[in-house]
Design brief:
Low-confidence stretches: 2-32
Radius of gyration: 22 Å
Structural class: alpha/beta
Shape: globular
Oligomer: single chain
CATH topology of the largest domain: TIM Barrel
Strand content: 25-35%
Largest sheet: 8 strands, parallel, barrel
CATH class of the largest domain: Alpha Beta
Mean pLDDT: 91
CATH architecture of the largest domain: Alpha-Beta Barrel
Distance between the termini: 34 Å
């Protein structure tokens, strides 16, 4: 489903389209430091990854922020989407160097173009250009010791396509051969949207050089392993994105506003998805990537982010830490247990006086602060996680905050809106929930 980043050329990523990447202008890490990653048969069946001969499990997150926290909570690997991310400066170092400092490995994304963005898989000129860019990217970064796996493409078949178009898979076969020619020491993983049997079978028929299949899945994430086995997949796979139930998978209001799950429910989904993928595939799953280790606007400002824009971690982070290590973090995020109001998913008159009462708890007993907001419903809806503009908030609608209770005035202008509550514990933890309503 989602890539967290704006698509563009081979290095398209979170920071948008970057032209003239000058892939050869930076020195690569010395070849002596390069690490060999292999896929080996597991003793009990299935597959393992090894890194310089040692077993390696991907306990991963999609995104490249909060690296120290990821490592502290038991994470081992991050996933990126475009090669320009690898040169991003983090604490005065490139992202790859900073990951190496912390003992974190990287599934290094190489963006493969999407036809919905104007790429034509029947155009030999465009194909040749993409192949050259892939080769240059691999040559530049292949010897860096933080590289674990190449992430060759993300949902390039289209997030809602059936995946039966052989042109895309055949071109990925060409690209994978280029990657292997340049770098025989790191496996190639290509990520698709969902595990539909027809798509998986078409990929297997046209793309035999793939080493690891990555699958982005949300509501059905826990069952991906079972679905792949039923489709006949026998190679390793990675759950490349998982998290809350997707916005296309939930109930909507009469005016088309999707209902976002509470933060506590999302946290449960993260834990269930990781455990389900690892346990239901007969040993085929070699790891997972929680989405997204950061914050992004997609439908809402909180749907997929595991952190707030202000940096606090949400309950999803705690759940993923528990999935990785079997224990909860020392300081857990608060929980919004309920938002109660007589206009939840309802219709109110312009300027109406409104009230919302929340039930919020904190297992650590921390004193909580409450931030209430009324926000316009997003109208900048994109496909496949493409960048969206954040809708405006209406601070004039918040009349009085009294802890977990707020008095509001409905917007004067008819339209669709949401009420958000952000609860913070002052120790880096938070929770966030919302509900839609309409003014008529």
């Amino acid at each position: 489903m989602n890539n967290a980043f704006e698509p563009g050329l081979i290095g398209a990523g979170w920071w948008g389209r970057i032209c003239g990447l000058a892939l050869g202008c930076f020195a690569t890490a010395p070849a002596a430091l390069a690490v060999s990653v292999k896929i080996v048969s597991a003793p009990g069946g299935g597959w393992n990854l090894t890194r310089n001969g040692e077993p390696y499990v991907v306990r991963g997150a999609g995104g490249d922020g909060r690296l120290e926290l990821l490592r502290e909570l038991g994470g081992s690997t991050i996933r990126t989407w475009g090669v320009e991310q690898l040169d991003r400066r983090v604490d005065g170092r490139t992202l790859l160097d900073r990951c190496q400092d912390l003992g974190i490995t990287v599934m290094a994304g190489i963006w493969v173009q999407h036809e919905r963005h104007g790429f034509d898989y029947s155009d030999p000129v465009q194909l040749r250009r993409q192949r050259e860019e892939v080769r240059a990217a691999v040559r530049k970064f292949k010897d860096h010791p933080a590289i674990l796996v190449w992430g060759l493409g993300n949902e390039m078949e289209g997030p809602s396509a059936d995946g039966r178009d052989p042109r895309i898979w055949r071109e990925l076969e060409e690209l994978a051969r280029i990657v292997k020619e340049e770098d025989p020491d790191h496996p190639v993983c290509t990520v698709i949207a969902g595990a539909a049997a027809g798509k998986v079978k078409a990929l297997m028929h046209n793309y035999p050089s793939i080493d690891i299949l990555g699958v982005n899945a949300y509501a059905g994430a826990a069952g991906v392993g079972t679905a792949l086995v039923e489709a006949g997949w026998t190679k390793p796979f990675i759950l490349a994105e998982y998290g809350p139930v997707g916005h296309w998978e939930v109930r909507q209001t009469a005016w088309g506003a999707p209902i976002e799950a509470p933060a506590r429910e999302k946290a449960e989904n993260y834990l269930k998805a990781h455990l389900g993928a690892m346990e239901s595939s007969g040993g085929l799953c070699v790891g997972t990537f929680a989405f997204v280790w950061g914050q992004k606007q997609e439908v809402t400002a909180t749907w997929y982010g595991m952190f707030l824009a202000t940096g606090e971690k949400l309950p999803a982070v705690d759940a993923v830490a528990h999935a990785w290590t079997g224990t909860w973090p020392a300081s857990r995020s608060p929980s919004i247990d309920r938002l109660a109001a007589n206009f939840v998913e309802g219709v109110v008159k312009p300027g109406a006086s409104l009230r919302v009462d929340a039930v919020v708890s904190d297992s650590d007993g921390d004193a909580l602060t409450f931030d209430w907001r009324v926000v316009e419903e997003s109208t900048d809806r994109k496909e496949g996680g493409d960048a969206e503009a954040e809708p405006p908030a209406l601070p004039e609608c918040v009349v009085r905050i009294s802890g977990a209770t707020v008095e509001l005035r409905a917007p004067a202008r008819p339209g669709a809106y949401r009420v958000f509550l952000y609860a913070r514990d002052g120790r880096g933890g938070a929770s966030a929930d919302n509900f839609p309503f309409r003014v008529e």
